[in-house]
Design goal:
Number of helices of chain A: 12
Number of strands of chain A: 0
Number of helices of chain B: 15
Oligomer: heterodimer
CATH topology of the largest domain in chain A: Fumarate Reductase Iron-sulfur Protein, Chain B, domain 2
CATH class of the largest domain in chain A: Mainly Alpha
Number of strands of chain B: 8
CATH superfamily of the largest domain in chain A: Alpha-helical ferredoxin
Largest sheet of chain A: none
Number of domains of chain B: 2
Order of helices and strands of chain A: HHHHHHHHHHHH
Strand order of the largest sheet of chain B: 2-1-3-4
Distance between the termini of chain B: 38 Å
Largest sheet of chain B: 4 strands, parallel
CATH class of the largest domain in chain B: Alpha Beta
CATH architecture of the largest domain in chain B: 3-Layer(aba) Sandwich
Number of domains of chain A: 2
Radius of gyration of chain B: 19 Å
Shape of chain B: globular
Structural class of chain A: mainly alpha
Radius of gyration of chain A: 20 Å
Largest interface: A-B, 53 and 59 residues
Shape of chain A: elongated
CATH architecture of the largest domain in chain A: Orthogonal Bundle
Distance between the termini of chain A: 49 Å
Chain lengths: 164, 298
Amino acid sequence: MRSEMVERESLVEVGNLDHRFPDRILRQPGGEALRACFQCGLCTASCPISLIDSRYSPRRVIKRILLGMRDQVLRDRFIWLCSACFLCQERCPQDVRPPEVMTVLKNMAVKEGILPQGIARMMEVFKRTGRLYPIDDFTAEEREELGLPHLEEEQEAVKRLLEE
Amino acid sequence: MSYALFLGCMIPLRLPYMETAARKVLDLLGVELLDMPNASCCGDPISFQSLDRETWLAIAARNLCIAEEMGKDILTLCSGCYETLKTANVTLKRERPLREEVNRILSEVGREFKGTIEVKNLLEVLQEIGAEKVRSFVTRPLKGLRVATHYGCHLVRPSDVLNFDDPMRPVIFDRFIELTGAESVSYQKKMLCCGAGLRMVDTKKALRLVEMKLGYVEEAGADCMAVLCPYCMLQYDVMQRMVRHRDGGKYNIPVFYYPELLCLSMGVPPEELGLRFHRTSPESVLKKIGLNSPPSIS
């Protein structure tokens, strides 16, 4: 059953391909070198995410972009698991810059309403305080105990930047 | 020598003892640190960039503008901030159309990116002071201490932007560890990511990366790990505690922020460092270098 599912997931349905998809990514900063990929797999061999879970692979994401598998690519969890460690980017013989490709894909996915909850929650705190964590009493006390200066929140400017 | 100190979020708000150690050691070395008024989160190298690259650049650039107005280079204590601010700085200096677009956004908050400053990490500042001068402050060498250095990804990669040390086989941190009198031990998968970047998406996988690294560090017989980034610190110190509680005490490897080890080697009393806030007790290391350990909170 499971292997059947995996097989179906990896099928390429020609009728559903979006042939303009690779070009849309090529036009974004970071996506320019996409077509240079010759699928050597050094990215996947370097990837810490692939190391702990072999179901995930940057090489496959890139192949799927080139095939025009738009929906599968934008729904792939890998694009959010990529931690931008840049090991693949340093090793890629074709200068494809996979982490930057993942950023382009994430920007597209967000426009379609795909965003992991954890990141959405972080965003909310950022909008409210200008930082990723609120300055609560506990933190203020701990800072004082450690002899550190008082911290201010920065809301106004950040909020306006986000509205732009 | 003076710098605009960029604190970020994780250090001042979650792991402030790291800020204490950094301020203390730089004060000892005669570096003046100027606070940056109205600074925000750097922009975060992973999550905000995921949402929208231009907004991310604008948030980073706004922080750069504050230092430009101060007329000072930025010192970052976190590798995430280092990567974000340096990438924004280098990119906006290089790409004029993008700079114009970002400046259009920044004009809304009355700022303009001019490209007049540099962004530096802690080791770069120590290099500027000079390794020999830093060494001359070491009064209590950490003899016999075996340290596994974890560089962290965003200190050295992407190398075409950061241009600091070799991106795959770096050496600078190891040299700075050895200057304290400690020994830097080699271990497998030294460049393996700490996994902090995926902890908001998949905590289990983030924990798996922590465990893997701890295994290699233990195998090499290191007494402790040393890091340069609060996200790596969070992963190896705090998350290690989660691994320990789950598996019944499997790992017990103390983790230090490099300035803490420097402070100890320069004779700063351990009770001044907030070591009690570590979630993995540093006691075994303090004992090894002949110091009493403060009571722990974990």
